[in-house]
Amino acid sequence: METVKEFKGLTGNLMAFKEEVADAKKITFAGAPGVCTPFAELFAYSVRDKESVYITLTDVDSARKMELTPQGMQLTDPADPKADVVALLGGLSMPKSNVKIEEVQEMVGSILNENGKLIGLCYMDMFKDAGWDEQLKFDCIIDGTLIGVVKK
User: Fold this and answer.
1) What's the structural domain count of the chain?
2) I want to staple 81 with a disulfide (CB 3.0 to 4.6 A). Which of 48, 64, 111, 130 is the partner?
3) What would the pLDDT profile of 95-118 be if each residue is shown by its tens digit?
């Protein structure tokens, strides 16, 4: 894959995602519990006019609606995970998640609508480091780089 756009900061990250899913009606996020869930909620908030669903790891039976509440996006009732866009979060590719690429391929194949879009959402080249960028047919990977400081 080649770089087609650069962005800075969290707002740029969210805007890049929003542009990539502009034509979608429904997005299903899949990620590791705890680590990826808040990121999925944040990305879903940026496109709160669209239907969003969250799957824990690759367990399609765990699919839950993501709904806007006064506290932000929250996981609620069971949901149908079939969607126009499947957004995989980088935590899936981390060794501690124990997710096999074949499981991801099977999940994506079972929930991505025909002519749908597979997007990777990660930081610090997680999909590339895991080799997933070569093993999955991503339409797009939105990869952020975090640089931070602590000041006192």
Assistant:
1) 1
2) 111
3) 999 999 999 999 999 999 999 999
Are 51 and 81 contacting, i.e. CB atoms less than 8 angstroms apart? no
Residue 123 in contact with residue 146, Cβ under 8 Å?
yes
Query: Tens digits of per-residue pLDDT, 50-73?
Result: 999 999 999 999 999 999 999 999
What H or E segment, with its residue span, contains residue 42?
helix 37-46
For 137, the domain range is 9-144
3-state secondary structure 13-35: HHHHHHHHCCCCCEEEEEECCCC
Please give the structure tokens belonging to residue 47.
């496109």
Cα(33)–Cα(102) distance, integer angstroms: 19
Which residue, chain included where needed, has tokens 């981390």? Answer: 94
Mapping DSSP to helix (H, G, I), strand (E, B) and coil, where does residue 5 land? coil
Least reliable range by pLDDT among 6-15, 49-58, 62-71, 136-145 = 6-15
Q: How far apart are CA 85 and CA 22, in angstroms?
A: 10
Q: Is the residue at 119 inside a domain?
A: yes
Neighbours of 66 (CB within 10 A): 25
